[in-house]
Specification:
This protein is globular. The chain contains 12 helices and 15 strands. Strand 11 and strand 12 form a beta hairpin. The chain is of the alpha+beta class. 31% of the residues lie in helices and 20% in strands. Residues 434-446 have low confidence and may be disordered. It starts with a helix and ends with a helix. Strands 1, 2, 3, 4, 5, 6, 7, 8, 9 and 10 form a 10-stranded mixed sheet that branches. A 5-stranded mixed sheet has the order 11-12-15-13-14. The protein folds into 2 domains: 3-313, Heat Shock Protein 90 (2-Layer Sandwich), CATH 3.30.565; 321-444, no CATH class.
C-alpha cells in the first residue's frame, strides 16, 4: 500500500463513528482486510483467555488506558532529560517522578490544572443528538502527548502480551503490557480498536493499526477464537505527518498516541463524558499522578453547556468540597511485619447537605461519591485496584448508621509486594465472581 492510500485508510477508520460505520469500510476494502493481513496479538493464537480475563468491568478497563497514558507522559519526560527510564538515574517511584519532572506544578489552580490535563484527553465520539430514548453507540478516543512509538516498535509495545516491557521502569504503574488490551473485550460486538502513534522526538512516521476479535470460521482449527491486528505488506501501515487535526481540545496531534475504541460497552446509565464518565474516573483514580480531560461533543449533546471537564481524582474533589459535604476526616498510617506499611483515610459525610432532606442528602452523596459502589477503596499510586461495597461498613464494621456516609481509602503503595499481590489478586477473583453471578441473574430474568 502506498503512502497516499495509507493516509486515506487511516482517515476512513478514524472518522467512523461506531462499529457499524467501521464495518462498512472494512467490507468496501476487502483486499486490505483479507485474513492474510491479520496477525494474532503477542504472536499467539491462544491469546483469547489472556485478553478476556484482564478486566471485569468496562470502566476499570478504561482506567488502564489512562494509566498507560500517565506512564507514557512520565517516560517521555525522562527521555527528554536525557535519562534512560530503566537506568539507576531514573526516579524510583511515581511520586519521585512527579517531583523531578514537574517540580513547580500549580495544579490546585484550575488554569494550570486544565493546561496540564490537555496532555491526556478522553473524548466521546458517536452520532447524535443523544437522549434517554435513543440507544446510540458511544465510541471512545484516548489521546496522550507521551513518548509514542515508531511503527516498527508497535509489535513490541502496543501489540505484545506478557512481555514485561516496563518491569525495570520503577516510576510507572503498568508492568506486563496487558493494560492496553484489557479494553478490547468491551469494544462493540467485534472488538474493533484503532491504535495510532508517532514518537515524541518527531522521528519516523505516524503508524496505525486496527485490532479486532478474529471472526472464527469453520476452517479454523483452534477451539477458541483470538485477537489480532492489521498488517499491510507485513508491516504496520504508516505515513509521514507534521500534524493532524484529530478533534483534540486546544491542539493538533503532532506526536504521542491516539486510540479509538468503537461502540464501547458502558454500564447502563452512562451518558455525557464531562459528567458521568468524569465522575467514575475520579473514583477509580483516587489520586492520579497527572490530571486529565474528559470531553463530549455538541453533536451528541447540543444543549449541554459543559462539554469538557478536567479531573484530578476523588481525593482532590473531597478536599475541595469538604465544607459542603464532609463533616469529619482523619488518616492513620500503620506498619506491620506482615503487610509492611499502609495509610488509611476516612471521610465522614454530613447527615444533611444544603437544603436537602435526609433522603435527598443520601441520594446526592451516593450520586456524587459512590457511583460505582466503592465504599472502601484499595489503591496503588492513586489507582484503585480493589474495593468493598457498603456491606463491609454494616457487616464487618457494624456501623449501620454510617452505611451511606462513610468512605475509606487504603493506600497500598508502600505495602510489601507479596502481600499486596495476594490482596489485589483476591479482589480480582471476587469481582469476577460478582460479575458472573450478575450475568446469570440477568439471563434468568429474561
Amino acid at each position: 500500500m502506498n503512502i497516499v492510500k495509507s493516509k486515506e485508510l487511516f482517515w476512513k477508520l478514524f472518522k467512523a463513528k461506531d462499529e457499524n460505520d467501521l464495518q462498512l469500510i472494512i467490507d468496501n476494502y476487502e483486499v486490505v482486510f483479507q485474513n492474510s493481513n491479520w496477525k494474532p496479538l503477542g504472536n499467539n493464537k491462544s491469546n483469547y483467555g489472556v485478553v478476556k480475563n484482564q478486566q471485569s468491568s468496562p470502566i476499570a478497563a478504561l482506567i488502564e488506558k489512562t494509566t498507560n497514558s500517565i506512564d507514557a507522559l512520565l517516560t517521555k519526560k525522562c527521555w527528554e532529560l536525557g535519562i534512560d527510564p530503566k537506568s539507576e538515574d531514573a526516579p524510583n517511584s511515581m511520586d519521585e517522578a512527579i517531583e523531578s519532572f514537574y517540580p513547580n506544578n500549580n495544579w490546585d489552580l484550575k488554569e494550570f490544572r486544565k493546561s496540564q490535563a490537555e496532555e491526556i484527553q478522553i473524548i466521546a465520539d458517536g452520532k447524535g443528538p443523544r437522549n434517554k430514548f435513543k440507544k446510540i453507540p458511544t465510541s471512545v478516543i484516548i489521546y496522550d502527548n507521551g513518548e509514542g512509538q515508531h511503527p516498527e516498535k508497535f509489535e513490541e509495545t502496543f501489540l505484545s502480551l506478557l512481555r514485561g516491557n516496563k518491569n525495570n521502569v520503577h516510576f510507572v504503574q503498568g508492568k506486563y503490557n496487558m493494560g492496553g488490551s484489557g479494553a478490547i473485550v468491551f469494544c462493540g460486538k467485534k472488538r474493533y480498536q484503532l491504535i495510532a502513534s508517532k514518537r515524541f522526538d518527531n522521528t519516523g512516521d505516524f503508524g496505525f493499526t486496527l485490532v479486532r476479535e478474529h471472526p472464527k470460521t469453520e476452517n479454523d482449527q483452534a477451539k477458541e477464537t483470538w485477537y489480532e491486528y492489521l498488517l499491510i505488506d507485513d508491516k504496520i501501515p504508516s505515513f509521514k505527518i507534521d500534524s493532524l487535526d484529530l478533534g483534540l481540545e486546544n491542539r493538533v496531534f503532532k506526536t504521542g498516541t491516539i486510540i479509538k475504541m468503537y461502540s464501547y460497552q458502558f454500564p447502563k446509565g452512562y451518558s455525557g463524558f464531562a459528567q458521568d464518565l468524569n465522575q467514575s474516573i475520579n473514583e477509580f483514580l483516587f489520586s492520579p499522578a497527572l490530571p486529565m480531560l474528559t470531553i463530549d461533543t455538541a453533536e451528541r449533546y447540543p444543549n449541554n453547556k459543559v462539554l469538557s471537564n478536567d479531573l484530578f481524582g476523588l481525593k482532590k474533589r473531597l478536599q475541595k468540597e469538604k465544607g459542603d459535604y464532609i463533616s469529619d476526616q482523619f488518616s492513620e498510617t500503620y506498619e506491620d511485619e506482615l503487610f509492611g506499611k499502609m495509610k488509611v483515610s476516612c471521610f465522614v459525610f454530613n447527615v444533611k447537605i444544603k437544603e436537602f432532606d435526609l433522603k435527598k442528602t443520601k441520594d446526592e452523596i451516593r450520586r456524587r461519591y459512590f457511583k460505582n459502589g466503592m465504599n472502601v477503596m484499595f489503591s496503588m499510586n492513586g489507582q484503585v485496584h480493589g474495593f468493598y461495597t457498603s456491606e463491609f461498613i454494616t457487616r464487618s464494621l457494624k456501623l449501620n448508621l454510617l452505611k451511606n456516609h462513610l468512605l475509606i481509602h487504603v493506600d497500598c503503595t508502600e505495602m510489601k509486594y507479596e502481600f499486596r499481590k495476594e490482596l489485589f489478586y483476591g479482589f480480582s477473583r471476587q469481582i469476577k465472581r460478582w460479575r458472573r453471578n450478575t450475568t446469570i441473574e440477568a439471563l434468568l430474568s429474561i
